[in-house]
Amino acid sequence: MPRPLYNFLHRSILHNLGLKLVSLLLAVGLWLAVAGEPTSEVAIDVPIALVNLPDNLEISSENIPRAQVRLRGPERIVRHLQPSDIFADVELNAVKPGERSLELTVHRPRDLTIVQVVPSVVHLTFDLHATRAIPVKPRVTVPQGYEIVDMRVDPSTIEISGPKQRVDTVGAASTDLIDLSGATGQTSFSRHAYVSDPLVQVANSDPVKITVTMDKVSPGH
User: How many domains does the chain have?
Assistant: First the structure.
């Protein structure tokens, strides 16, 4: 055998031959252990994260679905799987107003295979973000024989925000019911203002002050 070829073989193969054989045996043993390990399948319900929504847009869909992800892989990994190990998201950085169908991206441990995702596509509606000031109209019950002479609300308007089409349809904000039984003369109440649409938010959570002046109904009124 030519000397250069002998030197090459000695350096590449024969040098530390014992360690190389041990490493090879360990690798083969690990592969056999993994190949012979039983597999399992599991279904996990996961929330869908909506990422990178543009600042000028709002989601106008009331319900955001969850996804069921079916996974298959080594039993030892499936057995110790935690809900936090699996999550799904939808990229929204290029979304426009209107109805959109968006594909889910599922993140999972690399040793697990995705068998099925239900739904694999989510259908959502988007609208422009809008803000608007609306009047506050307190809800009151007036006892028999009395009438409201004057009612002042401070502040008299509040700011709301949300999807434009939903914001535009809100006429006024309400308050929790005020029972005026037993109230005579001038009485003040503190109540939170709210709107019934769950997608429309009240910008200021501070309560409003309602000052009511009551009087008995005049005879013949």
Answer: 2
H helix or E strand, kind and range, residue 76:
helix 75-79
Tokens of 93: 């950085």
**DSSP line for 112-130:** -EEEEEESSEEEEEEEEEE
- Rounded Cα–Cα distance for residues 193 and 189 (Å): 12
Token output for 197: 């649409």
Same domain, 45 and 96: yes
Final residue before a domain boundary, out of 128, 150, 167 = 128
Phi, psi (deg, nearest 5) at residue 151:
-145, 125
pTM listed for this prediction: 0.70
Contacts for 126 with CB less than 8 Å, ≥ 6 apart: 57, 58, 59, 60, 95, 96, 97, 98, 100, 163
Q: Are 174 and 196 in contact (CB under 8 A)?
A: yes
Q: Going by DSSP bridges, is the β-strand pair 178-179/201-202 parallel, antiparallel, or unpaired?
A: unpaired
34 or 106, greater pLDDT: 106
